[in-house]
Design goal:
- It comes from Exiguobacterium chiriqhucha RW-2.
- This is Amine oxidase domain-containing protein.
- One of its GO terms (molecular function) is oxidoreductase activity.
- The chain has 310 residues and is of the alpha/beta class.
- It folds into two domains: 142 residues, FAD/NAD(P)-binding domain (3-Layer(bba) Sandwich), CATH 3.50.50; 98 residues, Polyamine Oxidase, Chain A, domain 2.
- It contains nine helices and 20 strands.
- Helix 1 packs parallel to helix 9.
């Protein structure tokens, strides 16, 4: 079959790899300039800073086997354990996404605009061209996915799932600083601060780059404010951790759909009587004890939807 996948984040990449392994022709459509979605890393000067997923943990056997292979290849490593190992990608989380997507057909900087079906075929109109498929998988955040499916019947409960935004401030320091023993602080922080990460201590940056993650309520409150005002306030809060250490550059990343506030009870969603499937980190297996979106839920969703589509 000829299969299209909208969204080249982890779920889309994992599904594409599985479908291609079973002999299908697969291509991914990605609106950004790189694969990975929230497996995001930014170069700043001579350093790197993750500004999406901070790390990932492993519970299930399927991911455990793949992670063992990735460790052997030198793609991932254990950052620290508390009490379970926190894995990070060598050279940044986006590098892992690029390695996993190596060999796949990916159309970058291409935005899907409409989806239609006719005679069992799916047509995707993008801002570049029209693409035809036997089956389509959509893995973008649900609000963006549902914008493409306004003319299709979708479970009302799925349309009611909501997302919270997150701000991430990226700060380059002039001299070395320590953020806790392992490069992360996520407790006893000033209100609004969720996590503070030193990417040098994390092992991905040659320079002193700190990623500051703001919590959901703070990000919601500040989302419509000017970027400069928002960045200035994040810096003020960061200084409760770093004191008078000199900051020489600062950047802001806003994730509109950073974290789903609800989840779907099932690892994927097939549209009734249509060759279209939905997947992503919001789609959890019924026995998922964590009940929250994360790296592994995106991975498992990609595996399960590929099994259903092939």
């Amino acid at each position: 079959m000829n299969i299209g996948i909208i969204g080249a984040g982890l779920s889309g990449i994992v599904a594409a790899r599985e479908l291609a392994r079973h002999g299908h022709t697969v291509e991914l459509i990605e609106k950004s300039r790189s694969v990975g979605g929230r497996l995001a890393t930014r170069r700043i000067g001579d350093g790197k800073a993750d500004h999406g997923a901070v790390y990932f943990t492993v519970r299930g056997e399927e991911l455990k086997q793949d992670v063992a292979d990735w460790k052997t290849k030198g793609w991932v490593k254990v950052w620290y354990a508390d009490p379970y190992p926190r894995y990070v990608a060598v050279d940044g989380m986006n590098t892992l996404a690029k390695r996993l997507s190596d060999g796949l057909t990916v159309h970058l900087n291409e935005r899907a605009e409409t989806v239609t079906t006719r005679d069992g075929q799916v047509s995707v109109q993008t801002d570049v061209t029209t693409r035809q498929y036997d089956r389509l998988l959509i893995t973008s955040p649900l609000p963006q996915t549902l914008d493409l499916l306004t003319d299709f019947a979708v479970d009302a409960a799925l349309r009611e799932l909501t997302y919270a935004p997150t701000f991430v401030g990226l700060f380059e320091f002039r001299s070395e600083i320590a953020i806790g023993p392992d490069g992360i602080l996520d407790t006893d922080l000033a209100p609004g601060l969720l996590k503070v990460i030193n990417n040098r201590q994390k092992g991905i940056s040659a320079t002193e780059l700190v990623s500051v993650y703001m919590d959901e309520s703070w990000s919601e409150e500040w989302y419509e404010r000017a970027n400069e005002d928002t960045l200035r306030e994040i810096e003020r809060l960061l200084q409760t951790v770093t004191g008078s250490a000199v900051i020489q550059s600062r950047q802001l990343k806003r994730w509109r759909y950073a974290q789903a506030t609800d989840v779907w009870n099932g690892p994927y969603y097939p549209l009734r009587d249509e060759p279209i499937f939905l997947a992503g980190d919001v789609f959890l297996e019924p026995d998922d004890a964590s009940g929250r979106t994360r790296f592994e839920s995106a991975y498992v969703s990609g595996i399960r939807v590929a099994e259903a589509m092939r």
